[in-house]
Amino acid sequence: MKNKKIKVAMVTNHFGITGIGTVMMNYGKALDKNKYDLTILVGKPISEKYEKECLENGIHLEALPSRHGNPKKHYVALWKALRAGNYDIVHDHGSSSMMAVELTIAKLAGVKNRIAHSHNSTCPNMRVHRLLNPYFRTVYTKALACGRLAGNWLFGENNFEVLPNGFHTDDFAFSKKNRDAVRNKLGVENQLLIGHIGRINEQKNQEYLLDVFKEVAAIRGDAILLIVGIGPDEEKIKSRVKEHPYRDRIILYGETDNPTALYSAMDIFVFPSRYEGLPVVLLEAQISGLPCVVSDKVTREVDLGDINWQSIDDDPKQWAKAVVEIRRQSNQERLFYKEKHLSQIRKYNIACSVKQLDKIYTNMITKDNCDLL
After folding, report:
1. Are 58 and 70 in the same domain?
2. Which residues of 22-61 are buried (b: 16+ CB within 10 A; e: fewer)?
3. Cα angle at 159 between 155 and 164, to 5 degrees?
């Protein structure tokens, strides 16, 4: 019994390339497989990248029917999987009180330890969220949040533990080699490369970004906009780009599995989100030494010292003014940025975050064992 692994099921509604998916994979890969037997239970679609990483890192991946396509089949399959798995802990990742459904299923399947993990500061369907929230708060046994803003809105002030979104912070240090290679590939020489990385959807607000760029491009003839990502609003954004007066200076890059090199290639990072929990991309961009112009709807917890806050309620001209007035950091300044901000960056290192998660899991199991005595 002493050497029995702790069985953990991480759950979310789909597993495309998203912020939640990336966080789950970062933790999944970092957890000690000698101590944990980890399964990820997710609805389709499932990213091929994540499938491959699960296979390479000893993580069981179980695909469920799409929650959006067939909710009934999805939840029945989840119940069967949790019932058959005999899990010690269910760790549910989401952004709203809708997690109550998965957590109730986990409870009915006999899982005693149920973690609700908040990754955002609002959700698309507020009516359902508000309706479910009082019940939701009774069905989890541990509340986690990526940051204070995400926790306060879902669990109530201070009724949760902050677990920072851990990642390999060393990977995002500036590289001149990467900068030159990417800029050469994109056909960018000494131009001002304005970058954005994010899922193409209403939350990330790329339509507003295109309006901002229209104003920037009118002032700076050398400005180029690089939008990286995929998502449900891709066709809408492509249509807007076709009609844009500076469409020849906009690059829709699509999906990437190497954002590190792209950050190095950029000169400024722009992020006009309507809402966020704690966006890792902003930490990555700053670690690369990028000055950032960011929506004031984003939590201040993410500011390492190089964020220019702007309101998305303002005229795009105000954002454009902030963008063109930012001083571009020299390669040398960007190279040493990480070393100068080590104390702030350290808490986001995956080694620190996974140590905290391990402690959370272990304490849950220890409490179970004490309750049996």
Report:
1. yes
2. bbbbbbbbbbeeeebbbbbbbbbebbebbeebbeeeebeb
3. 85
Distance between CA atoms of residues 263 and 245, nearest Å: 26
Number of domains in the chain: 2
CA distance 241 to 317: 18
Q: Which residue spans within the chain are E strands per DSSP?
A: 6-12, 36-43, 60-64, 89-94, 113-118, 142-145, 161-162, 192-197, 223-228, 250-254, 268-271, 292-295, 307-310
CA distance 232 to 67: 16
pLDDT tens digits, 287-310 = 999 999 999 999 999 999 889 999
Name the 3-class secondary structure at 267.
Answer: coil
* Residue 295 belongs to domain spanning: 169-347
Q: Which residues of 74-111 are buried (b: 16+ CB within 10 A; e: fewer)?
A: bbebbbebbeebebbbbbbbbbbbbbbbbbbbbbebeb
Extract the runs of DSSP E, i.e. beta strands, from 146-276: 161-162, 192-197, 223-228, 250-254, 268-271
Provide the pLDDT for residue 1: 43
Return the closest-CA partner of residue 327 out of 310, 345, 308.
308
Do the Cβ atoms of 328 and 268 come closer than 8 Å?
A: yes
pLDDT(3) > 80: no
Q: Is residue 176 located within the same domain as residue 87? A: no
Q: Is there a single domain that holds both residue 239 and residue 119?
A: no
pLDDT digits (tens, 9 = 90+) for 106-162: 999 999 999 999 999 888 888 999 999 999 999 999 999 999 999 999 999 889 999
Q: Is the pLDDT of residue 373 over 70?
A: no
Contact in structure between 209 and 272 (CB atoms under 8 Å): yes
> Residue written as tokens 């190089």?
306
| CATH value at residue 147 | 3.40.50.2000
Residue 137: count other Cβ atoms within 10 Å of its Cβ.
16
Q: Is pLDDT of 69 > 60?
A: yes
Q: Is the pLDDT of residue 326 over 50?
A: yes
For 336, residues 6+ apart whose C-beta sits below 8 A from its C-beta are none
Burial 333-343 (b: 16+ CB within 10 A, else e): ebbebbeebee
